[in-house]
């Protein structure tokens, strides 16, 4: 059974804190994605990685960075959390081409 | 670039058939995917159309017409558990493997 796991389902952080969201997949997929999902806005891509140590900016990378040191793990970092980063964060992985993505359960982050 | 348009909400009754449309403006793409997401859950893959025509998977079917820049997801024999959000996603051609998602359609199934 394929699986994408995320480190936390719910997270509450204070403004200015550094936040790490981790994602692990066990399918040996080369592609991994971080999205944020907000009501009425659908899924917006933050960053994409197509290989270890490789990354590409998505539609909304500002305020975020990523790290992919191992193929199975893709981390999203909020260097200094702000209230407008309160959202649902979804990680996904896929083979290439990425017409079929597998999503993790999501992390609902609240920044106060 | 790509842009996908979906209705924001569709309602139907149990047992009925419903069609969720996805129209797109794109310079070129490999195909169209569909995902289902229940409230509080993660999106799950439903289907992918690489070619024009109808793909059937049980009660769900998906259709693509490149000449009309249009696709749809067809749900038959609706059940209450089909109440969810449905997203279309286009996979661009030209080297980037980053799909673009529509904003999603909330399907509400009434008894």
Could you explain the architecture of this structure?
The complex is a heterodimer of chains A (112) and B (111). Chain A is 0% helix and 56% strand. Chain A is mainly β. In chain A, the strands form two sheets. In chain A, strands 2, 4, 5, 6, 9, 10 and 11 form a seven-stranded mixed β-sheet that branches. In chain A, a hairpin with a 2-residue loop joins strand 7 (65-70) and strand 8 (73-78). Chain B has no helices and eleven strands. The mean pLDDT of chain B is 92. Chain B has strands at 2-5, 9-13, 18-26, 29-37, 44-49, 53-57, 60-65, 70-75, 84-92, 100-101, 105-110. In chain B, strand 4 and strand 5 form a beta hairpin. Helices cover 0% and strands 60% of the residues of chain B. Chain B has 111 residues and is mainly β. Classes of the chains: A mainly beta (112), B mainly beta (111).
- Based on the structure, what is the oligomeric state of the protein chains? heterodimer
Radius of gyration of chain A: 13 Å
How far apart the termini of chain A lie comes to: 37 Å
User: N-to-C SSE series of chain B?
Assistant: EEEEEEEEEEE
Q: pLDDT under 50 segments of chain B (min length 5)?
A: none
H-E string of chain A: EEEEEEEEEEE
Q: How much strand content do the residues of chain A show?
A: over 45%
Mean pLDDT of chain A: 95
**Largest protein interface?**
A-B, 24 and 22 residues
Structural class of chain B: mainly beta
In helices, the fraction of residues of chain B equals: under 10%
Beta-strand level of the residues of chain B, as a percent range? over 45%
Tell me briefly what this model is.
The complex is a heterodimer of chains A (112) and B (111). Chain A is mainly β and 112 residues long.
